[in-house]
Amino acid sequence: MAKYIFVTGGVTSSLGKGIIAASLAKLLQARGLKVTIQKFDPYINVDPGTLNPYEHGECFVTEDGAETDLDLGHYERFLNIFTSQSNNVTTGRVYQTVINKEREGAYLGKTVQVVPHITDEIKRRMLLLGQGKGFDIVITEIGGTVGDIESLPFIEAVRQLQWELPEEDSVVVHLTLIPYLKAAKELKTKPTQHSVRMLSQEGVHPDVIVCRTEEALSPEIRRKVALFCNVKQEAVIEAADAPTIYEVPLAMMREKLDLICLKKMNITQYNEPELSKWKEFLDKLKYPKSKVTIGLIGKYIELQDAYKSILESFVHAGAMNECKVQIVNVHSEFITDDNVAEKLGTLDGLLVAPGFGMRGVEGKIIAVKYARENKLPFFGICLGMQMAAIEFARNVLGIAQAHSTEMNPNTPDPVIDLMEEQKQITSKGGTMRLGSYPCQIKEGTLARTIYGAELISERHRHRWEFNNKYLEQYEAAGMVASGKNPESGLVEIIELPNHPFFIGVQYHPELKSTVENPQPIFVHFVKAAREYADRKNATKNPLLQSEMI
């Protein structure tokens, strides 16, 4: 049977429970233990698939097609393993299960209540990953903040499990905040004390307290937190702000977070942590040899978490190329034919991001045209690929009214159309083309060079697709459909051979990029951007040009 670590949070949201949970999991994994992580979210949505990215950040999609919280992306990027539907549970999913069972008569006429029926279902799902899967440790992150009304059933479930499981089989790690007051020039422990007291009032007593802080914790501060929060001083962990999330595992190792948890779980058989690849990645990340500027065009650029997996994929690809990738957010609503050169002229590469809806579409099409005509490295993901198809139809094929039926249902030339199996669907939640699908890649194409394989598998999240009725016209004009689904014939990849780097993909490659396995399209895109920057600099500087020759 697996042992369980529960990660809770107090004082405020966005402290980084997901990063702390993923860092702890990474350290335990590096010591030779088999670890997985799951996230319990307190909102009533069944999953985040129908949530606006401004509400909750990006929706992360797993191999099995589950629309999940973005923290699962951190779990996969840190641990280099796949998560699934079982790794993310919401209040909505729990209540949906309980109500369905009640309608079936499964409770034999009993009054269905939060305790025990809701908490029993939460506990069942908390323990599910640890049963028969071969994991040594299951880490469970409880979303929200202690004291929130919606979090109470989850905290109660943890309390019951602490009582039901053997003492050495469960550990509670509580993440909290120790703010630094500049006016007083000192750290304040009261928010942490109140947070732990509130958690204790619910019957859950933390074993480890991780303190987010801007300033180093003195021994006196640690002693004070330990005394008033009823933990050992060694179990008060400093989590100082770090330049990058990928430094957090090493910071937690220095604080011995993993060893403290192993000791409390009475696990004595483990190895010294093997983190050589992780440290090599960090060295390349910290000391790049070059720099490129990539323009990111999307609808939700005001919120960094809306494109979290894309941004992290650039971190991985940048380190792989020993190149610092500077992301410049470009709002497509404000791009016009008159200002496109001004807005994109300083870039070394352009990525048009996924999204839904009409807002900013025409600006994206103008941006794609600029990249195509000026040989600027271009990469389109999902909607970005569709924008590239529309731009090519309008400006190369001469189909002036080419569009997507998503934005213009009455277009006479739907080069992007609703997938056939989606046309009868009215329910929105969990009904898109979701999860992993195969893609067959043509020989002699850029995509084949990038992947080095004929058959690949990537994750999807879309309803509209390239309309194959127009494919012959595209290929006659020079655009290549270099990747297709072998069963449905769905166009997965389009590219332009007469361009240094112009590729669009219907799937979401960013969802599978990890520290140890950076996504190959991102790696080659950054490489192409670096070469473009070198050519641009050589043109400006004749001495550099002669050196390149």
Q: Would you identify the regions where 5 or more consecutive residues have pLDDT less than 50?
A: none
Calculate Rg over CA atoms. Answer: 25 Å
In angstroms, what separates the terminal alpha carbons? 64 Å
Roughly what percent helix?
25-40%
Percent strand:
15-25%
The number of distinct helices, counting runs of at least 4 residues, comes to 19
Largest β sheet strand count, sense and barrel closure: 9 strands, mixed
* Lateral strand order in the biggest sheet: 13-12-14-15-23-22-21-18-19
Query: Rough shape?
Result: globular
Number of strands: 23
The computed structural class is alpha/beta
For the residues shown, what is the average pLDDT? 91
